[in-house]
Amino acid sequence: MFRAAAITTRRSSQTLLHHRTSNIPPPPLHQNPNFLHRQFCSTPSSSSAKEAEIRKYIGYTALLVGSAIATYYSFPFPADAKHKPAQFFKYAPLPEDLHSISNWSGTHEVQTRVFLQPENLQELEKIVHDANEKKQRIRPVGSGLSPNGIGLLRAGMVNLALMDKILEVDREKKTVKVQAGIRVQELVDGIKEHGLTLQNFASIREQQIGGIVQVGAHGTGASLPPMDEQIISMKLVTPAKGTIEVSKEKNPELFYLARCGLGALGVVAEVTIQCVEKHELVEHTFVSNIDEIKKNHKKWLNENKHIKYLWIPYTDTVVVVKCNPVSKWRGPPKFKPKYTKDEALQQLRELYVDLLKKYRYLRFQIQINNLNKCGCMPVLKVGTESDISNSAKCVFHFEASFCFFFL
Fold first, then answer.
1. Of 141, 256, 350, 391, which has the highest C-beta tally within 10 A?
2. pLDDT at 293 over 50
3. Distance of alpha carbon 135 from its chain centroid, rounded?
């Protein structure tokens, strides 16, 4: 009985479903067959649009909050402000106890909290002793002119810039004893009054003597020794043996090693240098090429006390600089110029004429009158427009820099 009722109910449902389905009109031909599906999905699409709208406003809110935080942490608070934000960003200002040290060319840089500058030998000895007791690394650094950054160390550095005195000058032996922090220019100026100078040094004179000795710096000239070979004796501050003095007579082996020790055998505190009589040099500069230099290189090395080449790679020309002492009985040598005065000024004169041609006659006359009023040059009058080109020669004899007033 129950089974018959269930079958009857199922048939009635199928009949009713078929009847309702048959009453639905077919979709028009121009309408997309997926129209009913889109109508059925209309409610979820509305929900997605609302969620997208909510996400958009959440993003705006997050952007606003982030901008406010960034402004707060990057705001330049005054020095006396009671409230200062924490350093939040990577490029925030360095702490007061953190030193940023770089070499002269800016190719190497370190940041350290230990950068010490003693004023005398006792302070230097204490610095080295304390670093040894605490097992801390420390490295002497000079003016930082080495392009390889040899003196830079993050663990700690000691600089002798405040130990820059000339301690003793022996005029008879032609020696000078100095503290290692003195710069080359200061040393040369200091011993000039004693009639002495250094045998050789580099083109840049900002190096500290301790640094230029320890790295084996040199100047020019095949017969002249580098700086480390001009040293007679040195005073070293070491962590193990304390302060010791080395020379050819005292600890000759250590002296030989420490002359160019790169700061690894101790901190150089004082240096005694062998000097020479003060003398004048005549510099002769000219332009050559690589083929000519290869041909005459050995000859020029033997004939000149100092010689150097200034060459830009991948170019054909080389600037040659020769320096030789002035002969006391012959006086300065006289070099025959390669070009006459007119030939040397010809290109500049042509450039001046080209500049004048860019100006109309009236405007040029106004410029001349203005220059005459301000007293920049002798009175010059240009009568006709054709005189503009011809005026180049006479103006050039009055004032060579006159043409630059028109730039």
1. 141
2. yes
3. 33
